[in-house]
Amino acid sequence: MTMSKTDVVVIGGGLHGLSAALHLARAGKAVSILERSWVGRHASGATAAGVRTLNRHLAEVPISLEAMDMWHNIESIVGDHCGFHAHGQINVAEFESHLPVLQKRVSTMQAAGYDHEELIDRDELLRLVPTISPHVTAALIARGDGAADPHRTIAAFRRAAEAAGVAIIEGARVTAIERDRGDDWTIRTEVGTYAAPVVINVAGAWAADIAAMAGDDIPLGHKASMMIVTERIAPLLKPVVSVVGRPLSFKQSDQGTLVIGGGLQGKADIPAQKSFVDFNELAKGARAATDLFPCVGPLRIVRSWAGMEAKTEDYLPVIGVSPNVDGIYHVFGFSGHGFQLVPVVGAIMADLIVRGSTGRKIEAFAPSRLMEQRHVA
Ligand SMILES: Cc1cc2nc3c(=O)[nH]c(=O)nc-3n(C[C@H](O)[C@H](O)[C@H](O)COP(=O)(O)OP(=O)(O)OC[C@H]3O[C@@H](n4cnc5c(N)ncnc54)[C@H](O)[C@@H]3O)c2cc1C
């Protein structure tokens, strides 16, 4: 087999792989994406595509706010609106006893200097979401948040990356990464061998395997988040609604279907690349949906699925250079909330690889934090 030489090899053709490749190609690098199956095969194709700053971990807020600005200008970045609508994300307190959770969050955010999350009363909530059950008491809202169309987003990032010169090789499972005698890494796949001084590991639920091939031992868990889609109905609501203390993320797509998630967990066989819906668990999400929106009770569910993704111990992603080996970068472990971060994380990778550093706040995402925890344990 021939050896293809390039500046950067990206392992994984999900949205984070596409975004990193796009930003690097625009910064002048020759980039190849090696994808085991097809672009968008795993988490990026299974996602609920919520574009949420609301209730983010404080360490993620700076990059999440920048990503949100990018989503509001996504057409200028990838040439398509990606089905993004900024109708807001709302976290509802059903009962008075849930109010302190929202009040505490608002004070924490204000103390940190952020004002994008606001407490709204019941009247304002009912004005914004007239179809919600009247038993609710208040809510937290991020008005600039929203949701996008995941498949339209994948297609847009892919088109933009290819237009910038990125080579996307599908059906190319990476089987080994070896340091050759020069500055290059040799990346072996079932369909060819590649050489590059820089490798980005964006392999989602399988990222620990890729890290191990390069010599990094990064412990990872996994998530198998489940989703439900109903039949199409007339317009019911515009914002994305979640609820304190219950597993629910509830929105309506442009097509009229209701898209219901919220992090309920199915099961996954990661080595076999298979995920399974747990219908008993899924029923909890359906129950939360019908409690908040009683009118959806009679609707038919047309599809349900579970998607696989890597989870870290602190639920923060891994974004950064390997502390052990030159030229290896890790981008994974988004722990169920990486879709919103896609545009900005690609820009961060271009900073790190082209300029050698970034002005964005990414210290909390250093790969070494998980490797150090392993040593202590
Ligand atoms: C059901 C569900 C709902 C979600 N909802 C939201 C949401 O509302 N908002 C939000 O912000 N986030 C959400 N997320 C999370 C978000 O979708 C992910 O964080 C994001 O898509 C991760 O993208 P990725 O490119 O890192 O991973 P993936 O899309 O999983 O891409 C990794 C790729 O690596 C490839 N790969 C693996 N091993 C190899 C190998 N050896 N060789 C070559 N290629 C390999 C895989 O085939 C895969 O295509 C959700 C996730 C799921 C599953």
From TrEMBL:
Listed EC numbers: 1.5.3.1
MF terms per GO, please? sarcosine oxidase activity
Q: Provide the FAD dependent oxidoreductase domain boundaries.
A: 7-352
* Domain of life of the source: Bacteria
Alphabetized InterPro entries for the sequence: FAD-dep_OxRdtase (IPR006076), FAD/NAD-bd_sf (IPR036188)
Keyword Oxidoreductase assigned: yes
Keywords in alphabetical order, please. Answer: Oxidoreductase
Identification of the protein by name: Sarcosine oxidase subunit beta
Pfam families, sorted: DAO
